[in-house]
Amino acid sequence: MSRSRRLDLRLDRLVALMMATGFATVLFFVVYYLAPTDKLKWHVALLVAFIISVVFEISKFLFGIYLVHFATLNRVISHANAIAVLLFVFWIYLTALLFLLGGEIAKAVEEHHHGN
Questions:
Q1: What element of type H or E holds 105?
Q2: Gap between the Cα atoms of 105 and 101, Å rounded
Q3: pLDDT tens-digit readout, 74-99
Q4: Using CA atoms, how far apart are residues 27 and 57, in angstroms rounded to an integer?
Q5: Of the candidates 56, 38, 57, which has an alpha carbon nearest to the alpha carbon of residue 106?
Q6: d(CA 116, CA 105)
Q7: Cα(83)–Cα(30) distance, rounded to whole angstroms?
Q8: Is the pTM of the predicted complex or chain greater than 0.85?
Q9: Which residue ranges of the chain lie beneath pLDDT 70?
Q10: Spatial distance between the Cα atoms of 100 and 26, rounded to a whole number of angstroms
Q11: Cβ proximity of 50 and 25 under 8 Å
């Protein structure tokens, strides 16, 4: 593979990662800004949404590493699939936990800025 082709692949991956992080940031921002009964400042909601979306992308990457290296097709009848299902459930739990943690962080930052 040529050097320019490898650079193009890396650039494509970087653009895809930036787009995924941006999309997740927008989704988290909409929920953090519009859902709470105690409204947050938009910049606080945006900052926390960005931080949580980066952590979310890292957790997706780590889960992908597990699936690629440990849950292979030659282990269809083994315990690896059960472990993959349990890990997927754990990943969903972690995602929900990150979502709630982001809300708590946003509220704490908001209270800190207002001196409450």
A1: helix 80-114
A2: 6
A3: 555 566 667 777 778 888 898 899 88
A4: 13
A5: 38
A6: 15
A7: 34
A8: no
A9: 1-8, 70-81, 115-116
A10: 16
A11: yes
